[in-house]
Design goal:
The protein is an alpha/beta fold and about 1400 residues long. The strands form eight sheets. It has a nine-stranded mixed β-sheet with strand order 7-8-9-10-11-12-13-16-17, with helices on both faces. It has a five-stranded parallel β-sheet with strand order 25-27-28-22-29, sandwiched between helices. The relative contact order is 0.04. This is Fungal lipase-type domain-containing protein. Keywords: Coiled coil, Membrane, TPR repeat, Transmembrane, Transmembrane helix.
Length: about 1400
C-alpha cells in the first residue's frame, strides 16, 4: 500500500454546486478526498444538488457539515449513504484485470493513438476472444470510457502511453512488449531483450527512456494528487518494474502500484543498478504484482521478487494444473500470449479464477542449454512441446495455494499494517468528531481478526466474511484513514483506558403481560428473523395486535434469548436496554427520545427519579448522534428499539440509518393495507437489508381464535362473524364483561353483547369514533355491515347526531379505499357516489325504494361493452359483486352482464361465461317475443362468443357468433360478427377462410372505426399468407388513416396500427427503425391506457430486445446486448404482472426463452440455462412440442460445463425422436444424429471414452447412411461445385450436404483425438472429409462462411498450415537470447 501519510492535504480549485440554487462552492481536500462545509447550513435544495454532484464524483469520501445541520434529514442521510458507497467502490488503482486490458491496448498500432485520445476496447486484440461475455465487455467499456490518452511515444521500438482517469484520480502508464508481427519493431525489441534483460546492461536505450518518462508521470501525479499505476506484458512488464523502482527509490513516490504479466523478472536488474548494495528499504516493499503463466523462455530469464507474496502462478486453458517442472519449459511459448493470460481472469473480482503464490521459479542455466538443443531435435515437425517429456528434477519450482482472506501484517515496514493492528485493539471510537468515519471504522474492525506470529513485527490477519478479501479490506481501511489522517492517527494511538463513557439513564418501559395472546407463534417468528437480521417490520391492519406483540417480545423474550450474541466476542450481551418510541411523526420521535434519555449529569445521584428532580433534556440531532456514539461503544449492552405505529417509513429511516448494527435490534410496527407490503420495499431505500426477509404480517383473528382468546380471559363466547376480528374489539368486550360479570359460566351471546356495547358506547359518547373505527376493521375489505346492522335492530331511537357519527366511521373506511389512487376526479366521485348510495340503503333504510332505484340506475347505465372501459371498473366490479351476493333481487340483467364483462377483464373467463349464460336464460324466458328481444339476445350471444374467443376456445366462439347471425338484423352487429368469425378462423389456421369473412364484413361496414379494425385483421392475413409484407403494410396504413379521419384522439385502433407497422419494420429487417417505432408505440399505449401493464406493450419491449439481438452492431458495441437484455426483462416483468394468476401462460414461456437466447449471446451460460429451464417447464405444462427447448437446454448445460445434464436432455430428445419414428422419419434424421453426437462429446469431456465412442459411432451410422442416399460421387465434387456456381438452382442442397459432412468431420476429429491418431481408419476418414470441405471453401468461400466457425475444421486446418511468420520471429528471438546468454556467461568466466 505504501506510505499513507506522505503528502499533506492540499486544497484544489473550488467547484460550484449550482448557480441557479446557490452560490455555495466547496473545496476537495486531498489526498483524502473530503469536503469542508462547516461554514453554512445547507438548504433542502442545496442538499439535493450536493447529492447529485456526489453521484458523479466518487472520489469524494467525506463531508464536514455545520454543527446545526439536521443529521436526521432524509436527503442528508442519502448523502451519507452515497459517501459510504463512494468509499466502498473507490479504488486507488484499476483492478488487476483492467491493468491487463491496458497492457493489451499499448500493443495497438501507433496510428490508433495518433487518431484518437479515447480508448476503444475494440482495438485491443488481447480481449477480442470468443470467450469474452457481454457483461465482461460492458464492464471493460465502462472503465475505458473514463480514460483519456494524455501522452504517447513510439521511438525505435519503445512504445508507451499515459492514461488519465479524472473521475477516479488514476494515472496509468503502459509499456509495450516485444512485437513479433513487425520486422523493424521486432528487431528493436529483441535487441532490448538481449542487451537489457539478458546481458543486464543498465544503460540500454529503453531503460533510459523509462527513467525519462517516469519523471514526467510522477510530476503529474504530485500536481494533481493522482495515484500511479504501471502495467506491462513481457518486455513491457520488465520495463514496468524498472519504472516502479525509479518512482519508489529515485523520486520517493509511494502512491504507485505495478501489475505485470509474464515478466522476465527485474530483481537482478535492480541489483545491477544499485551495484549489488542492499537498499535502505527492501525491494519487496514495492507494490509490484506479477502474474506468471506456464514457465517459459521469457518468465524464466531472471529472478523475481517472491518475499512479498505478490508473484502469482496462473493456469491458462490447456495447461495441466500439475505443479511439477517439465524440460520443455525452455521453449514453450504459446501460453505467453497476453490474451491467453487474460482469459484466466474473472473480470468481476479482477483476479484470476485459479492461481497460486510463487515461492520459487525456474531460472535458465547454462547446464540446460545442451539438453534444450538435444530435446528440440527430437520433436517432429518443429513442435514446441511434447506431453511425454520427463520431469526436470533440478529445476527450482515451488508454489503455494492463495488464500485471499488472510495474510501477514508487517508492522515495521507498512504503515497501513500498523494502522490495522491499532484498529484491532481499539474498542472505543467515541472521540471521533465525525460519527460517519468512526462507524465505518467500527464496521471494518468487525470484519477481521489478528493473531500473533513468532516474530515480534509479524501478525496474521484473517477476514471473517468471505464477501470481502484481505486486499479489499486493506484498501477500504486506507481510504477511510486518508479522509482525515491526522485525527484518525491520533485517536487510534489513544489509550482505551483513558476513555470515560458517557452515561444515559433510560426510562424503564412497562407492559401488562396478563392475557397476552399469541395464536400464530409470532414471538418465535420474530426470534427467528432477528437471529439473522438486526431489524424486523411487523405489518398488519389496525387492531391486529402488532404493538402488543412487539412490546411483549422486547420486554420478556429478547433479554432471555441466547441467539443475540455480540459478534465481536461471540458471547451473549451482559445487558439489554429497551427504547419504545411512538413514531407517528418526527416530532413525536424526538419527544419520546427526550423522555427516555434522561441524562445523568451528577455523579452523586443514581438517577433523576431518586433525587426527585427531572431534567429538561431538549433533544437535538447532534446530541442524539452523541447517544448513537454511546451505543456504538457499548461493548456489553444490546439496545432494543421499538418504533411503534409508523405512519411514514421515510420519517424513521434516518433513525434506522445511523443505528449501529453490531449491538442493536429494531422492531417496527407499521400499518399497511392488505396486499400492499410492496410499499415497504419501495420506501426503505436507505437501509441495505432485503425487506423480503424482515417483514412479518400480523393478521386479524379468526372467529375461532377470537373465542379462544376470550376463553383465556375466562369468557365463553360464540363469536361467528363473517369477517376477521380485531383484538382491540375483543379487549373492549373483555372490559364490558368485567363490569357485568356472569356467575353462571354460560356461553355469552357474542352478537348480543357486541350490540349492547355499541349502544352503550353511543349513549355515553355519541361524538366519538374510537369504537366504531375499531369496528370498521372487523373486515378490512368491506364495511362491517353485519355489525352496523345490529344498530338498526336497536329499539331505541337514534339521534341524527348518532347516525352521522356512524356514517362518519364508515366514511373512514372509504377514505382508505384504493379508489383514492385514481387521478380522474370525475370518475372517483362517481364511484364514491355509488358507495354512498349503498351505505344509505343499508344503514338508514330511509326511502328504500327510491335508493334502490337510484342504485340500479347508476350501476346499470355504465356501458362496458365498448373498447374503452372506465378506469375504475375494478371498484365498480366490487360493488356489483357485493350487491349480487347480498341483494340479488335488485340486480338488473344489465348489471349481471356488466359483472360478466368485469370477470372477463380480470381473465376469469369461466365465471364470465357463467353470468352471461344466466343473463341469456333470463332473456330467453321473457314473455315478449319481437326483433328487439332477438337483438338483445344477440348482444349477449356476441359477448359469449367474444369471451370464448378471449379464452382461445375459437370453435365455441364461432358457434355463438353464428347464433348471433341467426338472431340479429342489425348491420353493425352483423358486420362486427363477420369480422370476429374471420379472426377466429385465422387463429385456427384457416387462413383462406378468414379472408372470406373479412371481405363480407368489409362489404357492409360503414363505420370508420370498424373498417379500421377489419383492415388491421386483413393486414395480419397478408402478413401470414406467403409473408406478403407489402400488402400487409398497406392494410395497416389504411387502418391508421381511417381512424385518424374519424378522430384526432389516440384510440386503441390507432395505437394498434402503429404497433403493426412497427412489426412490419421488424419483419423487413429494419431493426433500428423498428426500435424507434416500437418505442413510440409504447408511449402511445401508456398515454392511452395510463398503465404499462398491457400485452402489446410487453410485445413491444420484446421486439425491441430481439431487434437489438439481430442488430449488426452486436459485434462491435457492448451496449447492444445490454439494451436487449433490459428490454426483454421488462417484457417479462409486464407479462408476469398481466398473467399473475396464470404463471404458465405461453407468453411468459416465450419471454424466458428469449432471455435465454440473449444470455447465450452474452456468453452467460448459467443464466441462459436457468431461463431455458423455466421456459421448458411452462411449455411442458402447456403440452407444447419440446424439441427446440430441449436442444437449447442441452447446449446451455454443455456450455456451462454441466456435461451430465447436457447428456440427460439429449437423451430426452432421442426419446421424443424415437417415438416419432427415429431415423426412419427423414425429418428426424439430422436431429437424432446431432443428439447422439452431443452425447458423445459430453462423455468425451467427462473422460468416459467408451461411452463417447459408442454414441459418436451411432451418430456416424445415421449420417453416413444419409450421405449414401444422395448417390453423389465425391470424386466428382469439384466439378459439381463449379457447375453449382454457374447455376445456383442446387446450391441450397449442396450447402445442406456440406453441413452434414462438417458434422461427420467433427465426429472423426473427436474419435481421432481419443484414439491418439492410432486408428488409421479414423485418420484417413478425417483427412478425406477435411479435403472435401477445404475444396468447397477454396472454390466458393462466400457460400460456405459457416466453415470459419467450425472449431474442429479451423483447428485441423491450422495444424496443417505452414510455420507462420510470428512463430519464426519468436523462435529466432529465443535462439538469439540463448546464444547471447551463453557468450555472456563465457565472458564472465
Amino acid at each position: 500500500m505504501g506510505d499513507l501519510f506522505d503528502s499533506p492535504p492540499i486544497s484544489l480549485t473550488p467547484i460550484k454546486l449550482s448557480e441557479s440554487i446557490s452560490t455555495l462552492s466547496f473545496q476537495v481536500v486531498w489526498p483524502g478526498g473530503y469536503v469542508d462545509l462547516t461554514k453554512s447550513i445547507l438548504s433542502k435544495d442545496e442538499l439535493e444538488r450536493l447529492l447529485i454532484h456526489l453521484k458523479r464524483n466518487i472520489k469524494i469520501g467525506s463531508i464536514l457539515f455545520h454543527e446545526e445541520q439536521d443529521r436526521f434529514d432524509y436527503t442528508f442521510c442519502k448523502i451519507i449513504k452515497r459517501l459510504r458507497k463512494n468509499n466502498e467502490i473507490f479504488n486507488y488503482h484499476p483492478s488487476d484485470y483492467m491493468c491487463g486490458v491496458l497492457a493489451g491496448h499499448i500493443y495497438c498500432e501507433p496510428s490508433i493513438f495518433k487518431s484518437k485520445k479515447s480508448v476503444d476496447f475494440r482495438d485491443i486484440i488481447a480481449i477480442n476472444s470468443p470467450k469474452a461475455t457481454a457483461s465482461q465487455l460492458e464492464s471493460i467499456n465502462e472503465y475505458l470510457s473514463q480514460l483519456e490518452i494524455i501522452h504517447f511515444l513510439n521511438e525505435d521500438g519503445f512504445q508507451y502511453a499515459v492514461y488519465e482517469n479524472k473521475e477516479m484520480h488514476h494515472l496509468i502508464m503502459a509499456f509495450r512488449g516485444t512485437v513479433p508481427t513487425n520486422i523493424r519493431e521486432a528487431a528493436f525489441t529483441v535487441f532490448e531483450d538481449v542487451v537489457g534483460i539478458t546481458l543486464k546492461d543498465k544503460n540500454s536505450f529503453q531503460q533510459r527512456m523509462v527513467f525519462k518518462v517516469v519523471k514526467e508521470a510522477v510530476e503529474i501525479c504530485k500536481a494533481k494528487h493522482y495515484n500511479l499505476t504501471i502495467v506491462g506484458h513481457s518486455l513491457g512488464a520488465w520495463l514496468s518494474e524498472l519504472a516502479h523502482y525509479d518512482c519508489f527509490y529515485n523520486h520517493n513516490f509511494k502512491h504507485v502500484k505495478t501489475v505485470t504479466f509474464d515478466s522476465p523478472g527485474a530483481l537482478d536488474q535492480f541489483k545491477v543498478i544499485d551495484n549489488y548494495k542492499e537498499p535502505s528499504i527492501p525491494y519487496h516493499c514495492m507494490n509490484i504484482v506479477s502474474y506468471l503463466s506456464e514457465p517459459n523462455i521469457v518468465n524464466s530469464m531472471n529472478n523475481h521478487i517472491f518475499d512479498n507474496d505478490t508473484t502469482f502462478r496462473i493456469y491458462p486453458s490447456g495447461v495441466d494444473e500439475v505443479d511439477c517442472m517439465k524440460l520443455d519449459f525452455l521453449i514453450s511459448s504459446k501460453f505467453h500470449k497476453l490474451g491467453v493470460i487474460l482469459d484466466t481472469f474473472d473480470f468481476e473480482t479482477g483476479k484470476p479464477r485459479h492461481y497460486k503464490i510463487v515461492k520459487k521459479w525456474p531460472l535458465i542455466k547454462l547446464s540446460q542449454l545442451s539438453l534444450y538443443f538435444s530435446y528440440f531435435e527430437k520433436n517432429d515437425n518443429g513442435a514446441l512441446e511434447n506431453p511425454n517429456n520427463p520431469d526436470e528434477d533440478n529445476v527450482l519450482y515451488d508454489v503455494e495455494v492463495v488464500n485471499p482472506y488472510s495474510g501477514m501484517l508487517v508492522l515495521d515496514r507498512f504503515k497501513i499494517d500498523e494502522i490495522i493492528h491499532q484498529l484491532s485493539i481499539k474498542n472505543y471510537f467515541y472521540e471521533f468528531s465525525d460519527y460517519f468515519i468512526s462507524t465505518q471504522l467500527k464496521e471494518l474492525k468487525s470484519l477481521f481478526e489478528i493473531s500473533k506470529e513468532n516474530s515480534e513485527s509479524l501478525y496474521q490477519i484473517s477476514v471473517k466474511n468471505n464477501m470481502i478479501t484481505c486486499e479489499t479490506l486493506k484498501q477500504r481501511i486506507s481510504r477511510i484513514v486518508n479522509l482525515n489522517p491526522k485525527e484518525i492517527s491520533k485517536v487510534l494511538k489513544s489509550n482505551d483506558q483513558d476513555y470515560i463513557p458517557r452515561d444515559y439513564k433510560i426510562r424503564v418501559t412497562h407492559s401488562n403481560s396478563e392475557g397476552f395472546f399469541d395464536p400464530d407463534n409470532y414471538l418465535d417468528k420474530i426470534e427467528k428473523i432477528l437471529t439473522n437480521n438486526n431489524m424486523i417490520i411487523l405489518t398488519g391492519e389496525e387492531g391486529s395486535g402488532k404493538s402488543t406483540i412487539a412490546l411483549e417480545y422486547a420486554l420478556n423474550k429478547f433479554p432471555t434469548s441466547n441467539n443475540h450474541n455480540n459478534p465481536l466476542t461471540n458471547q451473549p450481551f451482559k445487558n439489554h436496554k429497551l427504547l419504545y418510541i411512538h413514531s407517528n411523526t418526527k416530532e413525536m420521535i424526538y419527544e419520546d427520545f427526550s423522555n427516555h434519555l434522561l441524562k445523568n449529569y451528577q455523579k452523586d445521584h443514581n438517577g433523576p427519579e431518586e433525587c426527585g428532580t427531572t431534567y429538561d433534556f431538549q433533544l437535538s440531532p447532534n446530541n442524539l448522534i452523541d447517544f448513537y456514539k454511546v451505543i456504538m461503544d457499548s461493548q456489553d449492552t444490546c439496545f432494543m428499539f421499538v418504533f411503534d405505529n409508523v405512519q411514514d417509513l421515510t420519517i424513521i429511516e434516518p433513525f434506522l440509518f445511523y443505528m449501529p448494527k453490531l449491538n442493536t435490534r429494531t422492531i417496527i410496527t407499521c400499518q399497511v393495507e392488505k396486499g400492499r407490503t410492496f410499499y415497504i420495499e419501495r420506501t426503505l431505500s436507505l437501509t441495505k437489508q432485503s425487506t423480503n426477509d424482515i417483514v412479518l404480517n400480523v393478521t386479524l383473528l379468526t372467529n375461532q381464535q377470537a373465542n379462544n382468546y376470550l376463553l383465556t380471559r375466562g369468557i365463553n363466547s360464540n363469536c361467528n362473524l363473517d369477517s376477521p376480528v380485531s383484538i382491540h374489539l375483543l379487549n373492549i368486550l373483555v372490559n364490558h364483561f368485567n363490569k357485568e360479570e356472569s356467575e353462571t359460566g354460560d356461553t355469552i351471546d357474542f352478537d348480543k353483547t357486541l350490540s349492547n356495547v355499541i349502544k352503550e358506547f353511543i349513549k355515553i359518547n355519541p361524538n366519538s369514533n374510537q369504537l366504531l373505527n375499531t369496528l370498521a376493521y372487523l373486515d378490512p375489505e368491506s364495511i362491517s355491515y353485519q355489525v352496523i346492522s345490529k344498530i338498526q335492530q336497536n329499539d331505541d331511537t337514534e339521534s341524527t347526531q348518532q347516525m352521522e357519527s356512524i356514517q362518519q366511521s364508515i366514511k373512514y373506511w372509504s377514505d382508505l379505499s384504493v379508489i383514492n389512487n385514481f387521478s380522474s376526479a370525475e370518475k372517483v366521485n362517481t364511484y364514491k357516489y355509488i358507495q354512498q348510495l349503498i351505505r344509505n340503503e343499508i344503514i338508514s333504510g330511509a326511502e328504500k325504494e327510491e335508493t334502490i332505484h337510484r342504485i340500479k340506475t347508476v350501476l346499470s347505465n355504465l356501458d362496458l361493452t365498448s373498447s374503452q372501459h372506465p378506469k375504475g371498473w375494478r371498484i365498480y366490479f366490487n360493488h356489483l359483486r357485493y350487491l349480487y351476493d347480498n341483494f340479488k333481487e335488485i340486480c338488473t340483467i344489465k348489471m349481471i352482464e356488466n359483472m360478466a364483462i368485469c370477470y372477463r377483464l380480470s381473465s376469469s373467463y369461466q365465471e364470465s361465461i357463467k353470468f352471461l349464460n344466466e343473463s341469456l336464460e333470463v332473456k330467453k324466458n321473457s314473455t315478449h317475443s319481437n326483433q328487439d328481444l332477438k337483438n338483445d339476445i344477440s348482444n349477449t350471444l356476441f359477448q359469449l362468443g367474444f369471451t370464448y374467443q378471449k379464452n382461445e376456445e375459437f370453435t365455441n366462439a364461432i358457434y355463438f357468433y353464428n347464433l348471433v347471425l341467426q338472431n340479429s338484423n342489425q348491420q353493425e352487429m352483423i358486420s362486427k360478427t363477420y369480422n370476429q368469425i374471420g379472426l377466429c378462423n385465422f387463429k385456427l389456421g384457416n387462413i383462406d377462410e378468414s379472408l372470406i369473412w373479412y371481405e363480407k364484413s368489409l362489404s357492409i361496414e360503414k363505420s370508420n372505426e370498424a373498417l379500421a379494425s377489419i383492415h388491421l385483421n386483413l393486414g395480419d392475413y397478408y402478413s401470414s399468407k406467403n409473408n406478403d409484407i407489402k400488402n400487409a403494410k398497406n392494410q395497416y396504413l389504411m387502418a391508421l388513416n381511417l381512424i385518424e379521419t374519424e378522430s384526432n384522439e389516440i384510440s386503441p385502433i390507432s395505437v394498434k396500427s402503429n404497433f403493426k407497422l412497427s412489426m412490419i419494420d421488424y419483419l423487413e429487417g429494419n431493426f433500428k427503425v423498428a426500435i424507434e417505432n416500437f418505442e413510440k408505440t409504447i408511449k402511445l399505449y401508456k398515454e392511452l391506457y395510463k398503465s404499462s401493464h398491457h400485452a402489446d406493450i410487453a410485445t413491444c419491449f420484446e421486439k425491441i430486445g430481439l431487434s437489438y439481438l439481430k442488430d449488426a452492431d452486436i459485434l462491435i458495441n457492448p451496449t447492444v446486448l445490454l439494451n436487449s437484455l433490459k428490454n426483454l426483462q421488462e417484457s417479462l416483468n409486464i407479462r408476469l404482472k398481466i398473467h399473475r394468476t396464470n404463471l404458465t401462460h405461453k407468453d411468459i414461456g416465450e419471454s424466458y426463452y428469449n432471455l435465454g437466447v440473449c444470455y447465450k449471446k452474452r456468453l452467460e451460460n448459467r443464466e441462459s440455462f436457468n431461463c431455458f429451464l423455466k421456459s421448458y417447464n411452462i411449455q411442458k405444462s402447456n403440452g407444447d412440442n419440446l424439441l427446440q427447448i430441449l436442444e437449447c437446454l442441452s447446449t446451455a448445460s454443455y456450455l456451462s460445463k454441466d456435461y451430465q445434464t447436457s447428456i440427460d436432455y439429449s437423451n430426452k430428445i432421442i426419446k421424443i425422436l424415437e417415438d416419432d419414428g427415429g431415423d426412419k422419419n427423414p425429418i428426424n434424421t439430422m436431429k437424432l444424429a446431432i443428439a447422439y453426437k452431443n452425447i458423445g462429446e459430453n462423455y468425451k469431456l467427462l473422460k468416459l471414452n467408451q461411452e463417447s465412442i459408442s454414441n459418436l459411432q451411432k451418430s456416424l451410422t445415421i449420417l453416413e447412411n444419409q450421405i449414401s442416399k444422395t448417390k453423389i460421387n465425391f470424386n466428382d465434387f469439384k466439378q459439381s461445385i463449379e457447375k453449382t456456381n454457374s447455376n445456383n438452382n442446387n446450391n441450397d442442397s449442396l450447402v445442406s450436404l456440406l453441413k452434414t459432412i462438417e458434422i461427420i468431420g467433427s465426429i472423426y476429429f473427436n474419435l481421432n483425438q481419443m484414439e491418439n491418431s492410432k486408428n488409421k481408419h479414423y485418420k484417413t476418414k478425417l483427412e478425406y472429409y477435411f479435403n472435401v470441405l477445404k475444396t468447397f471453401q477454396s472454390i466458393s468461400p462466400e457460400n460456405y462462411e459457416f466453415l470459419d466457425n467450425s472449431e474442429w475444421f479451423v483447428e485441423y486446418k491450422k495444424s496443417k498450415s505452414s510455420f507462420p511468420l510470428n512463430k519464426i520471429i519468436i523462435f529466432s528471438s529465443i535462439l538469439i537470447i540463448l546464444i547471447s546468454l551463453y557468450y555472456h556467461n563465457q565472458t564472465s568466466k
